[in-house]
Amino acid sequence: MNRSELLDLLYADLSNTMGCTDVGAIGFAAAKAASLLQGKLVSAELELSDLLYKNALRVGIPGTHAAGVEKAILLGYLLKNPERQLAVFEAAGESELDALAQLEQSVPITISHIDSPDPLHINLSLASESSRVRVLLSHEYDHIHEVEVDGRLIVSGESAAQLPGESADRRLDTCIDELYQFITNEDEALDALLDMAEINFRTAQLGLGEGIDIRPDTLADLEQAGSLVRQHILSGSGLRMAGAAVPVTGVAGSGNLGMTTLSAVLVMAKLYAVDDTTTRRALALAVLVSTYIKRKMTLLTTICGSSLAGGAAVSAAAVFLRGGDLEQLKNAINMLLAINAGTLCDGAKQSCAFKVGFSAENGVIAAKMALDGERLEGENGLNKPDVEQSIQNIADINNLALESASQKILKII
Questions:
Q1: What angle do CA 182, 186, 189 make, to 5 degrees?
Q2: What is the DSSP letter of 383?
Q3: What is the 3-state secondary structure (H, E, C) of 152-207?
Q4: How far from 320 is each of 25, 171, 183, 282, 314, CA to CA, in Å?
Q5: Is 274 helix (H, G, I), strand (E, B) or coil?
Q6: What are the beta bridge partners of residue 79?
Q7: Tens digits of per-residue pLDDT, 89-136?
Q8: Which 8-state DSSP code applies to residue 117?
Q9: pLDDT by residue (tens digit) across 224-260?
């Protein structure tokens, strides 16, 4: 990929989110349907793919401090602000929350889930006494595929695999070497990353109550840095999962991946008093590494994508921030993958914060090991000497071999 393509990739996968992305997408669909519905809402029907249902079932809805897909539908209906897309819940105030409590008592909602070939399938219908609106999201969290008003299709897209500019194959024609070379030669075009990362850092500090004063200490060891990283990510992600109305810059469609990827870099940069240019480059590296790995996998995963891609991104950024070279960076990623490859996604909920928090700390530990000269030697199961092959092997397991595991997880939860 050339410079322009890599810059496009870097910023295309950064987004403003409010709450868990999965319920945010449901709220977006509801807001779109509500904006076209004539009359007062009397019923709603929602059909989700199995994987999205798994993710949305137990996670908190922003502002409500409670879980429930029904709440996401009704709050989106009340807000009627589809222009906010995945940040739809950001505008919720006391009046909407009061009205939400009343609607929950009076509006029946039917929710079902299906084994859909499109893992991101959201088919929502809202009905009044005189009107009915159906909105179908597919392929991407914010892609409206169909809109039907009173039986008349007013928006109809091509099949998800044939969307203009899109592909059913989400993999990128690049590699870790190319991403590293790109960020070491880039500067001014990365300016916006600092502000985006600060959003996540402030949310993480908010969850810590009094906060943690990160005093610059260039002699601090990476184990200390790893502990600080874990505390911040546990805090910020924990708020999101509990349903707090806090803003987060998402990465590759995931607020938790954004919290992991961006917050960890800022924590380490502040601890080691790193200059802005190096910090921007480390942020770009982390975003690109996490996006690169996440796009090797299906959009909704059975292996925890935020844990795997986020931890790898943190390991790469930590090596870079501490002056390591490309070989050490790839060794760190490979060791992190060996640790985190078995972490499963069992839906969005409180424990996700623990997964991404400890994965990020593992990333820092892997970086320390790599900087100390340690590495995986020879054949190690899914891990190979070439980090690119390790990444692909784990992605193949997720994409091709874990369907039955995902179905079993869904039954359990």
A1: 120
A2: B
A3: EEEEECCCHHHCCCCCCCCCCCCCHHHHHHHHHCCCHHHCHHHHHHHHHHHHHHHH
A4: 35, 24, 10, 7, 10
A5: coil
A6: none
A7: 988 888 998 999 999 999 999 999 999 888 899 999 999 999 999 999
A8: S
A9: 999 999 999 999 999 988 888 888 999 988 899 999 9
